[in-house]
Amino acid sequence: MxxxxxxxxxxxxxxxxxxxxxxxxxxxxxxxxxxxxxxxSLKTLPNPSLNLATICxxxxxxxxxxxxxxxxxxxxxxxxxxxxxxxxxxxxxxxIGCLSKLKVLNVSGNLIESLPRTIENCRSLxxxxxxxxxxxxxxxxxxxxxxxxxxxSVNSNKLVFLPVSTSHLTSLKILDARLNKLRSLxxxxxxxxxxxxxxxxxxxxxxxxxxxxxxxLISLVxxxxxxxxxxxxPDSMGCLRKAAKAVC
Length: 248
Hints:
The protein has helices at residues 13-29, 70-75, 142-145, and strands at residues 34-36, 57-59, 81-83, 104-106, 127-129, 151-153, 174-176, 197-199, 222-224, 245-247. By secondary structure, the protein is an alpha/beta fold. It has two domains: 11-134, Ribonuclease Inhibitor (Leucine-rich repeat, LRR (right-handed beta-alpha superhelix), Alpha-Beta Horseshoe); 162-248, Alpha-Beta Horseshoe (Leucine-rich repeat, LRR (right-handed beta-alpha superhelix)). The protein has a ten-stranded parallel beta sheet, with no helix packed on it. Helix 3 links the parallel strand 5 (127-129) and strand 6. The protein is elongated. It starts with 12 loop residues before the first helix and ends with a strand. The mean pLDDT is 90.
């Protein structure tokens, strides 16, 4: 399940206020499965009286939110998609771990410095997009728990390394860690038997070597390790499938 960001059309203030009121009324009156409060310049979230457990998709992108209340995510037990990209969030609530059915989480374009360890409880998660934040590390055991994760996108952060447990994400198809400060990659990458795309480009002066295991990725179709300080490639690169595209 690969997810594309929804785009919000431009509108004037009068139109926005009108839609603002209509959306809030709908939330209060209906048992909605999809709630879209994107592009409304929200600084705080409304406190709806509806049963939040009915909501499957929640779109809050392009606002000015600084926090997501713990009580909100704790009550959205059937949530499948949560999109809060392009806000001012500095952290995520610990109660995000209550979202056991969550498949898509987009928190890109915020100010987040770390992900709560409770995110490991989101075991249905298939796509995690945390690009353009201030992440300096990921939870150490993230790879042991998110066994269904297919896409991990953490480009444009401040990551110095990826957790060793990353090599246990056996469902992973896409790993995008470009534009960070990576100094090395985990060993045992060959365990990522479904990985098709690996992008670790533009870590510039920080990344100097690639692990031997990178050439043992049996499903790899595209590898981008350009714009780093890599001077020697591992011998295993010759083992990559003939159709694989490698830029180093």
